[in-house]
Amino acid sequence: MRSLAASLLIGYSCAAGWTVCLDPGHGGSDPGASGDWYLEKNANLDVANEAAYYLGMVSDCEWVGMTRSGDYDVTLQARCDYANQNGFDRYMCIHENAFDGTVQGSETYCDLAGTGYDLATGVLDGILWAHSYSDRGVKDGTWLYVIAHTDMPAILGEGTFIDYDTSWDESYRYYTNWNDHEGRQGWAYAAGLCEHMGSTPPAYGSTGDVIVDNLSAGFTVNSPAEWSSGSYGNPWDGNYRWSMTTNQSDWARWTPNLPESGWYEVSVWYVEGTNRASDARFTVHHAGGDTEFTVDQTKDGEQWNVLGGFGFDAGSSAWVTLSETGVTPDKVVIADAVRFHMTSTGIEETVSAPMPGDTPGLLIAPNPASAFMVTLSLPNACIVSLDLYDLSGRRLETISRGFLPAGQSAIPWIPDRYPAAVYIIRASGEDWSTAGMAVLME
Amino acid sequence: MSRRLVLHPLILILFAVSRQVFADAMDVALLDGGTLIQGRDTLTWEGTEGVFSASDIGCDRFYQPTTSPNGRTVAVWAGSDSLDCIVIVRRNGVKVLGPYSDAGAPVWDGAGVLWFTAEGSLLRNCTPVGAPLDAYSISVSRQGDRVVYTDRDDRIMVMSVATGSVEVVSDDYRFYGPFFTPCGDIVSPSMDGGIWLFSGDAAQYVDQGEQPVWWPSQECILFIRTADDGMQLLSSDLWTWTPEGGSRRLTETPGLLETNPTPSDEGVFFVDAAVGSVGFAEAPAP
């Protein structure tokens, strides 16, 4: 038989393309794990869709098959049979983890002795980059049904613990896609797979986000001589510009070319340091005017820090400026990158009027606005808590709490002590909750 | 109806001498009156050769052993990232077709002719026929005149071998693994857990289940019905279905996970997915 093997290998030519089966875990009547805001089955599908989106940009990837593309039941056996019957080259099962609300981290599973180990390692590296949670390692997954009964190299990822709510609410990050939470994890699967298959991974950030970096054409400064280059830490795209605040007059500006009008979440990226200004001044110029923010650049660096949500027109009429004016003297301000993330889908969810029915409904209107009327439609009288959250998942206050009758009730919210930004208003009863976005303007 | 579950005597003998192989069983096929056990990267059967490894031909895994109509030959897909082969197993030896850069799982038609796809073509006895075809799993009608498969939109498609023309049988659900019955009907599972029967222009819902196969001696559809918790299989049992009698449960075994059913005249061989061993369930009494 050995001589036969040698003869068979002569004339072999490798296929150029490859295929992958993505399997978003759970679905339908099986929610998987759950947090206060979001169910694992939905997070798994969101991440799988993001991974499929990125893989769609990879020319070597001939086919991305999905075991489910909506919220319905698919048995484990059908998932395995679908992958096997279609002869996919790789199989990636996407899950989120859960324990007791105190544990956070990322891990992947595979047959440690098989080809899947390299894939599981690459995907885990990507997920660790995506979320910066604890590295819980690549683990033996041969006890998992889908790994044991798929014919091709297979992995299962447990991206994060969705029930974690100790320092932040992880399920809220999925619910709001905070900091492109699901997009980053989806990219991790796509990039890890591409690296494993020897293909060029897609660039992160091309999911509709517009990112203007200090190296981009849309970046300008008042005087190049006043802005030095730096690469300390983990700057966006490897480089940033910095300036001493001594003369109080320098500025940097990011001007995006937005593909369509809509509502965008604006975030800034910088590298923190002890010599940074704790009161760096960012101004967002949007369709409704200018909104100013003070950002403490001594902390929270190397991540997207959300300034708020704003309406923008398509094109290059918007900008974000970092100014030294009024900033503490003799400090350093960092000009690195600004991200414009379209959030129109989330806002649209709040504009359909609730109708009396079997489940509570929530309407926040007008929206965007500087004052809101929160209208609840309840099938039954009950005690309702109306709570306000920011986009990081932090609960800011209880707007109201009390007994409400069946039918419609209107509760005003006049946010006189919050900056312009996107907020979440969540209504909850004993065994239900519903939420919507409120875009607060100046 | 008998629901007795017994281990096949031959399997017990092999188990006693080759426990490691049985811990790896993924599928089973009939071979010349005995059985062929497919592991992830090994084939084991009763005969003079006994064991064949995928690594012997530069591959790392096997898939879907399928028995010829006369029962004397099994064809198995073998592959790796680099190459695919078709392994032909007889009681006294092995023959390898290929290598191909990309090949699909082999099947037989009613006349004992071997079919599979390779490098974008449909091959009949290793000769391209019909129109270009990129599907991995196919089924060929008894007469060898039609091929059924699913496309990348998970639709059931049928190709005429003579003309190469292709028609959509159904795109109502997401299907996978369709096959022809001896009378030319098409049976296919769908991703939402249903099994469907297509006869002419009519579509009939069979039942909830997976892995349907045709059971010739019983003239019925044999399938499994599983339950799971999203991570592990909790139960799996064998069922049969006929248009006249509907569904009948063949096994009810909480301790076994019957998968990959392979029918014979006497009963059904299956892989116990819990431990990777092979079992046998007797056919129901007439």
Low-confidence region ranges of chain A: 1-15, 345-356
Mean pLDDT of chain B: 89
Number of strands of chain B: 28
Q: CATH topology of the largest domain in chain A, what is it called?
A: Aminopeptidase
Regarding CATH, which class of the largest domain in chain A?
Answer: Alpha Beta
Distance between the termini of chain B: 8 Å
E-strand count of chain A: 25
Properties at a glance:
heterodimer, A: 442 residues, alpha+beta, Aminopeptidase, Jelly Rolls, Immunoglobulin-like, 6-stranded mixed sheet, 5-stranded antiparallel sheet, 8 helices, B: 286 residues, mainly beta, 4-stranded antiparallel sheet, 5% helix, globular, disordered N terminus
Per-chain topology:
The complex is a heterodimer of chains A (442) and B (286).
Chain A: H1 2-9, E1 18-24, H2 40-55, E2 61-66, H3 76-85, E3 90-97, E4 106-110, H4 116-131, E5 135-140, H5 145-148, E6 154-161, H6 170-176, H7 181-197, E7 210-213, E8 219-221, E9 228-230, E10 240-244, E11 251-254, E12 262-269, E13 280-286, E14 289-295, E15 305-312, E16 319-323, E17 332-335, E18 337-342, H8 344-348, E19 361-365, E20 372-378, E21 382-389, E22 395-404, E23 407-413, E24 421-428, E25 433-440
Parallel strand pairs in A: 1-2, 1-3, 3-6, 4-5
Antiparallel strand pairs in A: 4-6, 7-18, 8-11, 9-10, 10-17, 11-16, 12-15, 12-18, 13-14, 13-16, 19-20, 20-23, 21-22, 21-24, 24-25
Helix pairs in contact in A: 2-7, 4-7
Chain B: E1 5-6, H1 9-17, H2 19-22, E2 25-31, E3 34-39, E4 42-45, E5 51-53, E6 61-67, E7 73-79, E8 84-90, E9 93-100, E10 107-108, E11 114-118, E12 121-124, E13 127-129, E14 139-140, E15 146-150, E16 156-160, E17 166-170, E18 179-180, E19 186-189, E20 194-199, E21 202-208, E22 210-215, E23 220-228, E24 233-242, E25 246-249, E26 258-263, E27 267-272, E28 277-282
